[in-house]
């Protein structure tokens, strides 16, 4: 799982390089590709909360609400916001997701497995956040 998470960072880096060298793929700039990919990944990460909600008899509504709120926020921001607005919104959503997962970690019974997972999530999320800020500053 750790390698897959870090492989998921590669498209962010490649699209920043496209943007830096002012190169497009088809009709899309590096910044646009970065934003599209980020929206997909953020919605995927929010969707993992939905999967957890299905298994949780007590806190399912909170998890389902958080999942939908983040996915819909990102979606509407993509439609109605400019690139810089989307990038800032994505940073906030990624941080909210990892904070919420840290809260869930504290409530978890399986601390060993969750400890490794949460450490990886924090590292990957902070890397992705830095890449968002780098692209934001380059625009």
TrEMBL record:
InterPro entries: DUF3429. The keyword Transmembrane helix applies. The chain crosses the membrane at residues 5-21, 33-52, 64-81, 87-105, 117-137. Keywords: Membrane, Transmembrane, Transmembrane helix. The keyword NAD does not apply. It comes from the Bacteria. This is DUF3429 domain-containing protein. It comes from Endozoicomonas montiporae.
């Amino acid at each position: 799982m750790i390698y897959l998470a870090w492989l998921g960072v590669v498209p962010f880096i490649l699209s920043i390089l496209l943007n830096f060298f002012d190169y497009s793929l088809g009709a899309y700039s590096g910044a646009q590709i970065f934003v599209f990919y980020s929206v997909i990944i953020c919605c995927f990460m929010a969707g993992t909360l939905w999967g957890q909600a299905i298994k949780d008899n007590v806190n399912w509504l909170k998890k389902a609400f958080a999942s939908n709120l983040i996915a819909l926020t990102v979606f509407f921001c993509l439609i109605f916001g400019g690139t810089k607005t989307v990038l800032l919104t994505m940073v906030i959503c990624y941080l909210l997701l990892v904070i919420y997962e840290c809260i869930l970690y504290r409530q978890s019974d399986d601390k060993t497995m969750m400890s490794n997972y949460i450490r990886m999530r924090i590292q990957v999320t902070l890397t992705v956040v830095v890449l968002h800020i780098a692209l934001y500053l380059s625009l």
